[in-house]
Please model this.
Amino acid sequence: MSVVFTRPGVLFLLGALAVPASTSLAAQPQDAPNQSIVVNAPVMIAGPEIKGVITARNGDRMKVRAADGTSTIIAINDATRIKAGGGLFGGNRGTLGADSLLNGLPVTVKTLQSATGQADGGLVASQITFRTNDLKTAMMIRNGTDQRFEEQTAATEALRGRMGDIDKYNVKSTTNVYFDTGKAVLSPKAKDDLCATAATAEGTNNALMLVVGYTDSVGSDEYNQVLSEKRAGSVINYLQQACHWKPYRMLTPTGMAKADPLASNDTAEGKAQNRRVSVNILVSKGLDGL
Model:
């Protein structure tokens, strides 16, 4: 759909978006004859709905990682509505976006995309929603404004400081969750096992988690490396979002592809055992028993 409006000497024909900044009214001579300017702005249509966790912010763009480990770059503009719970926080992105769209925040994003698929090849957020409690948690992690969180943070920082010179841990337990061939989607049993593991870790003093993803031997090394990382990402997302395991008690995840198989890759049963993510509950040997 196009919109036409005029001023002396100029006829404007606009698409769904505003005129680019490079189109200057001042550049038109006052005595120029009537002329038309046609701006070929792309028509925007509804894009996919993206659910996941914000993992990075850079200016007016954010990266959202879904439960299956895939990441999507989404642009934010002045028309983006940002909502928490049932209410709208603030009236514009300038006061809301930078303060509320924090790393680690689970979000649901409604998007727009070019009808022709040629608008920079990207998605634009039309609405971003999240839970108020999730925002509060993300803000506490970033700012440490809650007293209880400040105490936890101080303890965690002291723990990390003491671990800086310790490179060996006691593995208190290991839970393996398994995946279908070529997939990074958690089964119902895997979800139950992960929350049970988080509950066990919560009752273990000074516990951290290390998540390691693996594959069977099917496929190239490059493919299996990416797949093992996606599986580890799926597990971490579920532990943090559904099982409420705190991000600051999670060690950097690792994708190990087909390395360290549990069983032989020569049989279907062995391959099934190797398509796994191992969730390890660790305590530094220097802190174990404290």
